[in-house]
Design goal:
This protein is mostly helical. The protein has 19 helices and 4 strands.
Amino acid sequence: MTRHLITLMVFLPFLGALLQAFLPTSQMVRGKFSISRWTALGTSLASALCGVFLVIAMKLQLVDLPIQEITPWIGSYAISYDMALDGLNVLLVLLISIVFPLLVAAEWKQKIGTQGLYGLLLVLQTAFLGAVCAQDLFLLFFFWALSALPFYFLIGIWGGENRESAAFRTIVSASIGNALLFCALILVYHALEPHTFSLRELSGGKLEDKVFQFLGSDFKVSTVAFILASAGLTLRAPIWPFHGWFSQAAKEAPSPVFVALSAVGVPVAMYIFTRLSYSLFPATLVQSATVIVVIGGINLVMGGICALAQKGLKQLSAYICLSEVGMILIGIGSLNAAGVVGSVFQELSLGLGLAGFGLFAGLLFEKGGDASFQNPDGESTYGGIVTYAPQMAMVAGVIVASLLGFPGLSGFVGHALLLIGSYSIHPIVVILAGLIFLLASYFLFTMYRQLFLGKNRKGLSFPDLSLREQAFLLPLVASILLFGIYPKPLIELVRPTVMSLLGTIK
């Protein structure tokens, strides 16, 4: 029943991207119908339906776990087309399936270069799904490196005033990060005889006693490869102080593009770090756990402090992301079932929250011409939006509350598990996280108050959410509520895989 369904899920968006090059550019039926738009949305939705079906099939035990598809690809070098779904990546497949069709719908009114825009978004969907599902290191790198290129064009062509600079910094950071990660994978490939890129064959601590020579000295493969992989992923995720490219991208990228970068790209980077660390480098991970937690704590604090100075919604979401990455790192470094399950769940929750926040910022700019909530003098840019756009106020309220971890919303589940799992090992960091949550409550509710409550300072009134806008915001709100009220099925999918990985480090 699920034969080749992973492949179908991964490559349907790519097929849609290819079709964008051949479809007519002219509008039909007086400009109300566009073949390219509906093709993009249709292929993205079809992929999403495959992903949701796979998640449901895993939960109902309709298939044996993990779901696998293996075909020899470049046999001479032990490179296989090896794709699988298990508890570690299933929530990210669900996240991508929810978010990307909404990004296509959010760009429905785009008039300049629509086919190129849709094509690049669809390539991103394929690249992220491939990176998440790949169980061959070469294949994983192939998809992960591919995901960097569309951002260069999406920011450089459709971005703001300084888009060229932001696009350049983004691709340079990604390229250096990809090079470091590839060096790590080459070391791993040559460590075992016969050489292999298979995660299954390399996992379980088989690299721990392997060494290589460089400049006449012996080095441990696991230690050097872990450092290289970590450094490479650091340059693809907002890790302080290497986050300058990310904050500039937040300012210049179109809102749906930054949503793809922050709400999907960052969780995928965190997933890859978790997968490689626990599968390939368990002993090195144990030795580095405290360092990971400290880096997470620094990210948490610096993200919260920097967020205080922001006056625009997209820049604010960038530093929320920076802070939340710190929380996920704390969970990864806890080496504890609750902490690691919490970090995996938080990848999903963070993605949903940032997607909603970013799309809301885009709507505010589209309707009011300004995505800031405060002017340089500290006064409200808008104010009183709730009186004429109550639906928008409600949606924004749910998203903000989820990012803060309020009960009944998905953010609460991830944060609670992270703190429960980490407290017995790193209580100081958990207490610090509590203080940062108080700070986050201050700046997020200040933002909400200045936008939606009080007096309307601009004297303008724009319409509430249209049917199209409801169509791409309400699924996010529904997901945040559903996964917050009843997270049990998702946690039960994640926990067995996490327990298996933790068994390799005890």
